[in-house]
Amino acid sequence: MLNNDKPLRKLSVIVPLYNAGAMFEDFMRSLVAQTLKDLEIIIVNDGSTDGSDALARLYAERYENIIIINQPNGGVSRARNAGMAIAHGEYVTFPDADDRLYPELYRTLVDMAQQDDLDVAQCNGERYFMGSGEIKTLIPLDRLTSTGVIDGPTWLHKALATRRYLHVVWLGIYRLSLIKQLDLQFVPGLHHQDIPWTTELMFNARRVRYTQEVLYRYYIHDQSISNQKRIGMKNVEYQRHYIRIAELLEDINHRYHGKVRMYREFHLQVTHEALSVCHAVRREPDPVARQLILNDIFASGTHKRMIRNARGIKQWYQLMLWLRRIYAWRKPG
């Protein structure tokens, strides 16, 4: 039975769990080793079948601040939404269950948030490539350094301008009351749903601060959704997510036009996400799948969406090249 009268914690850590495998043990060790202790951990078991849920139960028996929700497999968005529905933290965050957290991650972000009354506190992270052991900083210091307190649209503009920013929710903590005020949910079934979610949240954030400290390790491995190679119908289905993301981003820009300053980067990212679908057409070896992706581009109006949102000589040049290609590749019918 969930207790809605539980005391407010500084931070709710919501962990979607689906077959995280052997890496889940390292993740949990890094989570319970956080120097910030005033947090609740909500593990949403999303129908795991590899034993990850059993390990989660062992940790829940050992640590009283760990809660487990069990639900049929419905994807990361539904898992995050379920966790938010019961969260009791002033702030909330969403790490991935196969990554690793540096010990000072949440203390650093919560201290920043409380010191400056932030809606969002974000840090830097690193990619760890499982095959080679290579480590790369997510946002290089020559692209972006620590900021003072700025508003959300200004931060998003600065971050996108680096061309190294990732729309990921695991690099920050977010004021839960603002999320609930906006009724901001993750889109069920949408891959890379962090992109529209973080965009709309930043459009509403009054006070944001970023630290260049690297406090999160993101593992790149073959099982990662973004790292899988897809061809044929799997690729067709996957590109539909990017088409949808471009549509959602343009809708967000439209709804907030006149309410926040619309930096050119907010339009650029719409065309950028849509152009990724064009690149996928060129790489697709199956001619039937290629035509299906092309049909989706035109049926969804993505070609017009790119034209409406292109900004700058460089992107316009790229867009003109790609429009020529997709019109040439498209077969009438």
Low-confidence stretches: none
What is the overall shape? globular
The N- and C-terminal alpha carbons lie at a distance of 57 Å
Helix share bin: 40-55%
Task: Characterize the biggest β-sheet.
Answer: 9 strands, mixed
Provide the structure class.
Answer: alpha/beta
- Structure annotation, total helices: 12
Beta strands, count: 9
- Provide the residue-averaged pLDDT: 94
| Strand-residue proportion | 15-25%
Order of helices and strands: EHEHEHEEHEEHEHHEHHHHH
C-alpha Rg, in Å?
A: 20 Å
Highlighted features:
single chain; 333 residues; alpha/beta; nine-stranded mixed beta sheet; 12 helices; 9 strands; globular
What do you see in this structure?
This protein is an alpha/beta fold and 333 residues long. The chain contains twelve helices and nine strands. The protein has helices at residues 23-32, 52-62, 76-86, 105-116, 152-161, 176-182, 194-204, 233-256, 264-283, 287-299, 302-309, 313-329; strands spanning 9-17, 39-45, 66-70, 89-93, 100-101, 120-129, 135-137, 172-175, 208-220. Strands 1, 2, 3, 4, 5, 6, 7, 8 and 9 form a nine-stranded mixed sheet that branches. Helix 5 crosses helix 9 and helix 7 packs parallel to helix 8 (233-256). The N and C termini lie far apart (57 Å). The mean pLDDT is 94.
